[in-house]
Amino acid sequence: MRKYAESWTATALRAGQNVHWIDGASRIDPARILHHFPSTEPAAHEHLHRLFIGRGFTVHQLSSLVERLAREVSITDAPLVIIDAPIAMHLDNQVGDHEARCLMRRLMFEVKSIAQNQDVAVLLITSHQAKSKRHQQLLTMVERQASRQLVEQREGRNKNGRRWLTHSPSGLSGTWPNPLGAMTLTRTVERLKKIKRQETSSLCKPDGQDEALSLGEQIIRCAQQAR
Q1: CA-based Rg of the chain, rounded to a whole angstrom?
Q2: Chain segment 35-92, per-residue pLDDT in tens
Q3: Domains of the chain: which residue ranges?
Q4: 38: preceding bond cis by omega (within 30 degrees)
Q5: Beta bridge partner(s), residue 154
Q6: Which residues contact 1 (CB under 8 A, 6 or more apart)?
Q7: What is the DSSP letter of 48?
Q8: What is the spatial distance between Cα 136 and Cα 125, in angstroms, rounded to a whole number?
Q9: What is the pTM of this model?
Q10: pLDDT tens digits, 98-110
């Protein structure tokens, strides 16, 4: 899921918008975000000035970063907030089970408040396969509080194998980006025409879609394509 978040971040930055990314496990690499910019994009590095990164090295630091988000978003007017590996931080052996649940409950309260009160798309990146009892408890807590979920499925273990997103609760699914078939001359011409029609500010937006869609709604569209 991280690669999708990186692509959505690049799209928002190219549109002149701010993005907040809270890194809970030292996994963010701005170079990967730059990889999603077109090679023809002038001064792509300049867009990173609108990417506000907070690193939480402990679960308590992560909690503090999330608690400050509401005020920071009100200043930057960012439409997108990404919190990477929040559950992983709560699996720290130095934090007891009860404290971990309390901290996660408070984190989810803050996240829901930001999403609802400030009309912000908040994405939490985490594995959907529990590896321990505590992991399962925290994952269940997050799933119950999340209004929507996007889960990546993959075919086989081949890194180049087919992948697709499944959206809950709608049950819709689709590949993103669409896998390429044989590139015939006709297909090439059609693809070039499609690229020409696409808006640079869209997030995997189908042709003709209403441009009034919010960033969160556009993200959900990614799970509805190429069914």
Answers
A1: 18
A2: 888 888 888 889 999 999 999 889 999 999 999 999 999 999 999 999 999 998 899 8
A3: 2-147, 170-227
A4: no
A5: 163
A6: 123, 125, 150, 151, 152
A7: G
A8: 15
A9: 0.73
A10: 999 999 999 999 9
Q: State how beta strands 51-55 and 173-174 pair.
A: unpaired
Beta bridge partners of residue 83, listed in sequence order: 22, 124
Directed axis angle between helix 97-117 and helix 59-67, to 10°? Answer: 20
DSSP string, 159-175: TTS-EEEEEETT--EE-
Q: Is beta strand 51-55 parallel, antiparallel or unpaired with respect to 80-84?
A: unpaired
Phi-psi region of 43 (alpha: psi -120 to 50; beta: other; left: phi over 0): left
- CATH number for 2-147 (one of 1.20.120.1760, 3.10.50.40, 3.40.50.300, 3.40.1180.10): it is 3.40.50.300
How far from chain centre, in Å, is Cα 98? 28
* Cβ(69)–Cβ(20) below 8 Å: yes
